[in-house]
Amino acid sequence: MFILKEGRSAFLEFLRNLTPQILLLSLCFFMGKKLNFSKIDFGNFPPTFIFFIFLFLAIIAGWANASIFMEKFVPLIRIRRAMGLIGKKQSGKRARMRVTYAFKKKMVFLEGIFIIAIVEFGLAGVFVSAVVTANRMSI
């Protein structure tokens, strides 16, 4: 399995980068606890702006972390190289080739599902940790 061999460093980097996401999302939820989105009040602009900045940063951090982890998945790199041999206008053929490759190489298919599960559970853990942390915070 790729994660237990060459993918160890990518996996550990993914786990290491979850902490800043928890911090950003916790700050976002903490700022959002006291906001009232049911009415428009320009006196409430600074906390609302800070809330949306932290939310945007948390989303971008999550996307960047997951995409870097997925890019380092070697079988996907092999598929991308094979896709480069087919013209870009033949998108149907490219899709069929991806599916065929995945089913011929059962382990690649299972590892792909495993990698996606890791990303999903990692980001779900970030969300839960951020909510719990934000609920415990007080000024």
3D architecture notes:
The chain is mostly helical and 139 residues long. The chain has one domain. The chain is 78% helix and 0% strand. Helix 1 packs antiparallel against helix 3, helix 2 (18-33) crosses helix 6 and helix 3 (45-71) runs antiparallel to helix 6. The chain is elongated and about 60 Å long. The N and C termini lie far apart (47 Å).
Q: What is the radius of gyration?
A: 20 Å
User: Structural class, from helix and strand content?
Assistant: mainly alpha
Shape: elongated
- Unreliable sequence segments: none
The rounded distance between the terminal residues' Cα atoms is 47 Å
N-to-C order of helices and strands: HHHHHH
| Percentage of residues in strands | under 5%
The description of the largest β-sheet is: none
Number of strands: 0
Explain the layout of strands and helices.
Elements: H1 8-16, H2 18-33, H3 45-71, H4 74-84, H5 91-104, H6 106-136
Helix pairs in contact: 1-3, 2-3, 2-6, 3-6
Question: Which properties best describe this structure?
Answer:
single chain, 139 residues, mainly alpha, 6 helices, elongated
